Amino acid sequence: MRREGALLAVIACLAGAPAAAECAPEVVDIRSAGSEVRFSVELADTPDTRARGLMYREELPRSSGMLFIYDTPQRATFWMENTPLPLDMLFFDETGVLAGVHENAEPFSRDVIDGGDGIRYVLEINGGMAGMLGIAPGAELRHPAIDPGIAVWPCPAEDAG
C-alpha cells in the first residue's frame, strides 16, 4: 500500500501540466499507453554539454532530467563514469519515438550503454522512473527541437519557434 501511495504521488507530481500546455525548450512531454508526463530538462546540445552530461551531480529533482540533442541520427552510447546517480536513459529516434530504454544505469560504471543506431534524442531521468511511469518503447516525445514536419507528436505551430 505504501508503494502505491508513493507511485501516485510521483505520477501526480510529473503529470502537473495539461496536454495543451505550451512546448518550451526547458520541458519535454512524453505520452505512453494513454498517459502523459512532463519533465523539466536541461539541454545537452553541444559536444561539451553532451560530454559532461549529469556527471558529478549529487541529486536530480524527481520531475527533472537532461535531454541530449544530436545534430543527426546516430549510434548513441553512454557510460556512467563520474555519475553518482542511477539513471534511466530513454533513446528516441528523429521523429520522437522511443526506440529503447536502459533502466537504472549503475553509478560510476564504465560499461558502455548502447542505445542503438538512428538515435537523435536521449532523455536521462532518475533511475526507476521509466518503469514506475510505464514509459516503454513506442512512447512519444514532444519538444521544440524535434522537426514538426516529421514529429509523431509535434508542438503546436505557435509554440514551435
Verbal overview:
- By secondary structure, this protein is of the alpha+beta class.
- The protein contains three helices and nine strands; from the N terminus they run H-E-E-H-E-E-E-E-E-E-H-E.
- It has helices at residues 2-14, 47-52, 129-133; strands spanning 27-32, 35-44, 64-74, 77-78, 87-92, 98-105, 113-114, 119-126, 140-142.
- The strands form two sheets. The chain has a seven-stranded mixed sheet. Strands 4-7 form a two-stranded antiparallel sheet.
- Helix 2 (47-52) links the parallel strand 2 (35-44) and strand 3 (64-74).
- The chain is globular and about 40 Å long.
Task: List descriptors.
161 residues, alpha+beta, Jelly Rolls, 7-stranded mixed sheet, two-stranded antiparallel sheet, 3 helices, 35% strand, globular, disordered N terminus
Helical amount: 10-25%
Q: Into how many domains do the coordinates divide?
A: 1
Low-confidence stretches: 1-20
Order of helices and strands: HEEHEEEEEEHE
Major beta sheet, specifics? Answer: 7 strands, mixed
Q: Strand order of the main beta sheet, please?
A: 6-5-8-3-2-1-9
> What is the count of DSSP helices, taking H or I runs of 4+ residues?
3
Taking the alpha carbons of the first and last residues, their distance comes to: 44 Å
Overall geometry:
globular
Strand content: 25-35%
